[in-house]
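Thanks for the sequence, V.! I ran Adenosine 5'-phosphosulfate reductase right away. Repeating your input here for the record:
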Amino acid sequence: MSALPWATQNAPGHAIGLYAQWTPALDAKIEAAQQHLRDACAAHHDGLVQSSSLGVEDMVITDLISRAGLSVHISTLDTGKLHAETLGLLPQIKDRYGFDIEVFSPVAEAVVEFVTRQGDDAMYKSIELRKACCGVRKMEPLSRMLAGRSAWITGLRREQSGARGDVAFDEDDGSGTGRRKISPIADWTWAEVWAYVEKYAVPYNPLHDQFMPSIGCAPCTRAIAVGEDFRAGRWWWEDSSKECGLHAKS
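Predicted structure:
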C-alpha cells in the first residue's frame, strides 16, 4: 500500500510542500532514468514514443527527455472527458520544452453510439460498462498511438499500487507484438518525484494540489483522503484493481 503523508509537511494545499523530499538516492536515480531513456532511443529510434498521461510522473519524464537532449516523439490521449487543467498542460509543454504533443482522440461516432446506448454515466453502472467506456475513449486511441511503434515510455512506478509493484524498467508490453514498455522512473518514490519537480520547476497539473495523485477522466477521478492508496481516487465506487486496460498484465 502507498499511503500519502501529509502531517509532517509544511505547505498545506501545495503538492510540492506536501510531498517533496530529496533523498540520497535521487541523483543516481535521475542518471539511471536518463540512461534508460538513452538506451531506449538507441534501440528503437523512431519506433519509440512517450505515451504521456500528463500526470506528474509523465511530466518528469518529459523533463528528463529534454534535459538529456533526446529526440523522442511524445503523444497523449484526449478522451473527451479530461479536466481542463489536464489539457492546459499542452501549451505549457510547448512553451517550456518546444515539444509538439500529438493528441489522439476517440472516434467521435463510436463515442456517440456508446453514449446513446449506455448513457453518459455508463461508467457508474458496472465495471463492465466502465471498461467498455475506457475501451472506446482510451484503448482504441492508444492502439492508433502505438501502431508501428516498437516501444513506448510510461510513467509507471512500483509504489503506485500493488498491481504495479513488479513494474520493470524495460519489459514486454503484453500485446503479443514484441513491443517493449519502458518505465524509467519505476523505482522512484512519490517524494522523489516531487523533489525533482521542485528542483527543476517542472510544470504540473494543479489538480495535484487538490489531493489527486492519480488523475484520469473527470467523472472517474476524485481527491483521496489521508491514508488512502495512490489510486483510490480512480473509479472509487468500484472494488477493482483500479486499471483501465492501458497497463493490464497479459
